[in-house]
Amino acid sequence: MNYARIRHATIQPAWVRISHWVNALAVTLMVMSGWQIYNASPIFAGVRFPAAITLGGWLGGALQWHFAIMWMLVANFAVYVALNVASGRLQRKLLPLSMRSLMSDLAAALRGKLGHDDLAHYNAVQKFAYLVVIVDIVLVILSGLAIWKSVQFPLLRTLMGGYDNARVVHFVGMSVLVAFFVVHVAMVALVPRSLLIMIRGR
Amino acid sequence: MTLRNKSGRLSEFASSHAESIIKDARNELKNPARRLLGKRILTLGGIAMLSGCDLSNDKSVNSMLRKMSSFNDDVQALLFSPTTLAPTYPESMITRPFPFNAFYDIDDVPEVDAASYRLQVSGLANGKRVWTLDELRALPQESQITRHICIEGWSAIGRWDGVRFASFLKQAGADLTAKYVSFHCADNYWTSIDMPTALHPQTQLTLGYDGETLPPKYGFPMKLRMPTKLGYKNPKHIVAISVTNDYPGGYWENQGYNWFGGS
Q1: CATH number of B84-255
Q2: Closest CA to A67 of A29, A38, A40, A41
Q3: Which chain A residues have any C-beta within 8 angstroms of a chain B C-beta?
């Protein structure tokens, strides 16, 4: 293996690393403040979030956080998606994704036989996970907009199945995001070199 | 060095990595601007790791959040369409019983005497300034079945009957170019709204609920009903209305709820 090449080839360009960490911060703050807001009127009986993992102190404070950080989340996500498409990174790294390769890589991963030798190349399970989380953030943003402005955006409200159902969609979107976060962090713990790459690019 | 003895290749790889990281870090820190940026990034990370309570007590964080909330007032004013109507529903979808909600318990609902009740209009208005309940009831009445959305997240559908607020404002000779309309209530609640929302066709001076006289728990003798705004923007037991260009604030708004509160 050529170490010199590995050291100098940038795997994650600066814009990916910056938008990744801005997104990580924004999502964390959005989820924590969102849990506090949820607690004011739980959708599912018995599902509540402990105060220690919420942000804002009270409903009004949590709403202030949620509606401030949403701009950070949306602006950063828009830049990330635009650069992903414009640079061709989306095509190169996350596509194509076939059901067959996803199944075989998933089977290999579950047997513990899916390697991470080349961190510049995503396996099918990774591609799937990253595409899901991109689509999920779109869903979280749109359902959030439908809750916030249910009167001003009638089409969006209808797409979300009405105001009350938009809250359920928003909750499910949050749950997928948190599930991704858990698996993502577990994977980083298993392959610490990927953290290094997301910090310094190589 | 002991590491190198155990596994030459691995430690060589690790140490060359470590060296290059340290070299990078040194280069970064040479530049004062970058050093400042680094410090700021660390601070931001530190802020994010604190618990919500500590964060919300921080003065600068709080003032940033208030500024963003006021920015969101402007955004909502831009998004607000004076002609887009909130959805209406059939009678069969009315939530029964419609929930009672206030900043106090249902036992503390104020009792307003219908005969001695007077609605005061003040500020930028040159028409009738004092209204009795009968005079309000004599104005043309409309009814709506709309969804009430609470800031807490829950919602309920109800039927409200009363006077279109835009036509009341015209009758009262209000300056319709003024920025705000503020409300003071018999339960000491107070809030204020923007003029475009005040003139929205579904904004109603509500005198009745579900075909009956408005009961005390929903705001007797009169409340303002706006399906384009969240519940706390819909004041009950209104006794005074003022038209003004000076930002009036509100009971919850001054504690941190967003002022525009539109949906």
Answers
A1: 3.90.420.10
A2: A29
A3: 3, 7, 25, 28-29, 32-33, 36-38, 40-41, 43, 51-52, 54-65, 67-68, 71, 148-152, 154, 157, 163-164, 167, 196, 200
